Amino acid sequence: MPPRIPSNRIPQPQTCQCYLTRTTSEPVVAARQFHASARHDTRLRRNMWEWLKGPGKVFRDPLPGSTNYLSAYDKSGNLVRARRNQSKDDQSRDELDEDEDTIVQRELDQGLDDVEREDRALSRATRRAEREEAEARGGIPPERLGDMRPYPLNQSFRSQPVLSEELREQLYTQVVNYKHDIPSVAATFGVDVRRVAAVIRLKTIEKQWEEEGKQLATPYAQAVLNMLPTTPFKPDTAKPITVHEPINDLPVHPSTRQQIFYPASESRQFTREDAAKVFDNKLLPADKRIPLPMLVDLEKWKIQGLSREERQKKQREMDDAARAATESAERKQAEWEARTQRTVPGRRWNFKFQDISAEKVGKDGRGKDAVGYRYGMPHEDRKRGMVKIPTRVE
């Protein structure tokens, strides 16, 4: 490769200014915009502008209180569920407009029992609430599962609803102000117990920030809620509570993942408790492992033919008994701590001291009342003289 010559050794040409004059009288053509040039006027761009001026113009002014996903409209820009609402059967409308006493008398003449009549009454109240909601929205029915697909090419994904601000405020009021326990509130409003607990914690922080005068991102939260399906709370309607999610789903226990062929006699009544003992002796049955066992009792009472008032009365008695047991346990725990613990206030922290007996370590030194039991005991694998291989086969 030849050596490079420094640029400062090369003689530079003298600079000059050249002027170009226009000899013809041609008009000056203004430069066209990028999107309007003929080179970019493609078929896809023309189709996009036709869609924006045609079916896509409905998204310029979206419906209030609706997600307005693409799957909710057809290719012509018409709302699918509005067309479905117009094609409903007129017989169902006549039944909803009929007097409730007349309907009850006709059901009694048909020989229906109390449980069936109660289910039909709840169904009619639900349909009336949907019709009132549709009338309040200008004749547009509420969204269905088919309207919850934000991506038309992905038919399997549906946008899940979130809790509305009114429902979250009501959950906080029921637990904090009215002192109702969280499982009962979760069963009443159809919200999972863990979600109710999370709402209470977040609402508590929100109330604390409001008292401190901190600014909240309320417009941002409202904009996000307007784009997502929400579970409402309407206390002034026939159906104030809408079930948000399944609240009694049972998580899969690791001990039940294996397949077991257990022989049992035909004359034996094999229950859920027996099935739990087959998998593990310490495994509880499904009726006791679900988050809300009270719902099983309510369903049993309903099958037994108890009326709604009787079921509610028994449920209130059970709730009062559980609340009294919880208060008694908390009171006993507080009395025990006051009797056995000494609190020494410090500059930043309060130190608690408790008397521990050194004789409660158990035979192997790992008793539950021993010192350091909470933090565990280190393994003895590296201790000299310890046998680390099995000496017998069970």
Estimate percent helicity.
40-55%
The structural class is mainly alpha
> Would you report the number of β strands?
4
Low-confidence stretches: 15-21
The share of residues in extended strands comes to: under 5%
How many H/I helical runs?
13
- How would you sum up the major sheet? 2 strands, parallel
Return the string of H and E elements.
HHHHHEHHHHEHHHHEE
Overall average residue pLDDT: 81
Q: Sum up the overall morphology in one term.
A: extended
Distance between the termini: 81 Å
Strand adjacency order, main sheet: 1-2
Q: Could you tell me the radius of gyration in angstroms?
A: 36 Å
In short:
This protein is mainly alpha-helical and 394 residues long.
What does this structure look like?
Residues 117-136, 308-340 have a biased composition (Basic and acidic residues). This protein has helices spanning 43-53, 80-86, 90-97, 100-109, 114-136, 165-177, 182-189, 193-212, 218-227, 272-279, 286-289, 294-303, 308-340; strands at residues 162-163, 230-231, 341-345, 350-354. With 394 residues, it is mostly helical. Among the domains are: 48-137, no CATH class; 162-231; 271-338, no CATH class. Strands 1-2 form a two-stranded parallel ribbon. Strand 3 and strand 4 (350-354) form a beta hairpin. The protein is extended, with a radius of gyration of 36 Å.
Main traits of this protein?
two-stranded antiparallel ribbon, 394 residues, Ribosomal_mS45, mainly alpha, 4 strands, 37S ribosomal protein S35, mitochondrial, structural constituent of ribosome
